[in-house]
Design goal:
Helix 1 packs parallel to helix 12 and helix 5 crosses helix 7. This protein has a seven-stranded parallel β-sheet, sandwiched between helices. Strands 2-1-3-4-5 form a five-stranded parallel β-sheet. It has two domains: about 120 residues, Rossmann fold (3-Layer(aba) Sandwich); about 180 residues, Rossmann fold (3-Layer(aba) Sandwich), CATH 3.40.50.720. Strand 1, helix 1 and strand 2 form a beta-alpha-beta unit. It starts with a strand and ends in an 11-residue tail after the last helix. It is an alpha/beta fold. The radius of gyration is 21 Å and the shape is globular. The chain contains twelve helices and twelve strands. The site of glyoxylic acid (GLV) has 7 residues, from loops.
């Protein structure tokens, strides 16, 4: 059997796959271009991919032997799961492994945006620190503020748990109620309009689907408090990025902390880069050594199971 892996992985993960298949690893630091990917999947029985690879119908049409797509991420919006299902290809992802690490980063963005840390560090390095003064770099309090969580799944729940440590009040929206969050974290499920109106911080933790694409647009941003902060460590396209830029520029909301963008990498001429009141991270939500290693091992296990025709430890259901 043959497997194609679209980026170098920790050695133990590759060894696990090599035990059952001939493995080709894309040797470059960036993703394989579409043409190279198409060529590599031609005789592959298994594909281990990242969120930077587009796994769609035209690609699958080039992969007649493919029986498993194993994505090293929890979000699978880059994979056409329905098209895979039509071809009898199973799809795996890595939920669970990255939940707390991603919530840590989301909370770090919340804190950095509230307390103006990016701006403060840039100012200090540029020699702009004159003296201690009453309102110098004064930001927003986190403790006892209201956090609105959009999407109370695994990561949303962990975000809420962190927030409770800061005595924050939790509101959330979710397709289904989360009794555990309501019981243990005193979270209250509300409609999006109420969440936007009431929250001091709005943090996005929903997957990118047709229903959530552009969920936070000009209207939603206008409904937020002028002192509110938006955090996005989910997927960039959940937010209308141009509308967000305009809201931040005009101070219609106070600040944002972002890890994800409509286009990644964020182009260097993107207007967001001209603003002081946004903290920008390069999609590193799950980027701790331990978590990325765990994700690679789970992705390898999914791939191996698929190659063997066994149920995947973490299979994605086609909706
Ligand atoms: C990262 O963004 C992931 O979906 O795992």
């Amino acid at each position: 059997m043959r497997a194609f892996v679209t980026r170098d992985l920790p050695a133990p993960a590759l060894d696990r796959i090599r035990a059952v298949a001939d493995v080709e690893v894309w040797p470059e630091p960036g993703p394989p271009p579409a043409t190279a990917l198409r060529e590599r999947v031609r005789d592959a029985d298994g594909l281990l991919c990242l969120l930077t690879d587009t796994i769609d119908e035209p690609l699958l049409a080039c992969a007649p032997r493919l029986r498993v797509v194993s994505q090293m991420a929890v979000g699978i919006d880059n994979v056409d799961v329905a098209a895979c299902a039509r071809r009898g290809i199973v799809v795996g992802n890595t939920p669970g492994a990255l939940t707390e690490t991603t919530a840590d980063l989301a909370f770090a963005l919340l804190m950095a945006a509230a307390r103006r840390l990016g701006e403060a560090e840039r100012l200090l390095r540029a020699g702009g620190w004159g003296s201690w003064s009453p309102l110098f770099l004064a930001g927003l309090d986190i403790h006892h503020a209201t956090l609105g969580i959009v999407g109370m799944g695994r990561i949303g729940f962990e975000m809420a748990r962190r927030a409770r440590g800061f005595d924050m009040r939790i509101l959330y929206t979710s397709p289904r109620p989360c009794p555990e969050a309501e019981r243990d974290l005193d979270a209250r499920r509300v409609m999006l309009a109420e969440l936007l109106r009431e929250s001091d911080f709005v943090s996005l933790h929903c997957p990118l689907t047709p229903a959530t694409r552009g969920l936070i647009g000009a209207g939603e941003l206008a409904a937020m408090k002028p002192t509110a902060v938006l955090v996005n460590a989910a997927r960039g396209a959940v937010v209308d990025q141009r509308a967000l830029y305009e809201a931040l520029r005009d101070r219609r909301i106070a600040a944002a902390g972002l890890d994800v963008y409509e286009t990644e990498p964020l182009p260097l001429d993107d207007p967001l880069l001209s603003l002081e009141n946004v903290v920008l991270a390069p999609h590193i939500g799950s980027a701790s050594v331990a978590t990325r290693t765990r994700m690679a091992m789970i992705a390898a296990d999914n791939l191996v199971a698929g190659l063997r025709g066994e149920p995947l430890p973490y299979a994605v259901a086609a909706s």
